[in-house]
Amino acid sequence: MDTSLDSLDAKFKPLAMALLARLVEARIPVVIVNTRRTDVEQADALARHVSGVPRSKHQDGLAMDVAPFETFAIHGMNKILWDGSDPIWLRIGQIAEGLGLKWGGRWTVKDLGHIEYVGSSAGDVSV
User: Fold this and answer.
1) Which residues pair with 63 in a beta bridge?
2) Is the Cβ–Cβ distance between 99 and 18 less than 8 Å?
3) Please, are residues 9 and 61 in contact by the beta-carbon 8 Å criterion?
4) Alpha carbon distances (Å) from 103 to 29, 44, 107
5) Which of 84, 68, 88, 86 is nearest to 76 (CA)?
6) What does the pLDDT look like over 9-52, one tens digit per residue?
7) CB under 8 Å to 105, separation ≥6 — which residues?
8) 55, 42 in Cβ contact below 8 A?
9) What's the half-sphere exposure (Cβ side, CA atoms, 13 Å) at 42?
10) Is residue 38 within 8 Å of 61, Cβ to Cβ?
11) How far apart are CA 113 and CA 127, in angstroms?
């Protein structure tokens, strides 16, 4: 699983770096859980119900997942055990949205650590 900022698309990387800087300024330590995914990793995430879409912005380097350091230190990758009621998630989302990014915490099926680039990618379909 990739966690490198260098794996992100050139459009998203500066925004991802700005997000991390703003989180540091807000004294919110986070762990980068995932940046880019291969097609095989996405198929596996879909099979494990960790992802609900066959094509993810992670595959294009246009998304990353983060977790508060304390949450990750206690529960690791097991998102089921992450406390979604912790207000730290909303603060992370607000900071991301303040940069014009999309936060998965606003979705019907919430993905609290998911942050993605808003704009077109190879997998987007214009209607």
Assistant:
1) 116
2) yes
3) yes
4) 17, 22, 8
5) 68
6) 999 999 999 999 999 999 999 999 999 999 999 999 899 888 88
7) 89, 90, 92, 93, 111, 112, 114
8) yes
9) 16
10) no
11) 28
Residue with tokens 């606003």: 106
| CA–CA distance, 39 with 33 (Å, rounded to integer) | 17
For 24, the token pair is 């540091």
Scan for tokens 């260098």, then name that residue.
6
Q: What's the predicted TM-score (pTM) here?
A: 0.87
List C-alpha distances in Å: 9 to 37, 111, 121. Answer: 12, 21, 10
Q: Are 113 and 44 in contact, with CB atoms under 8 Å apart? A: no
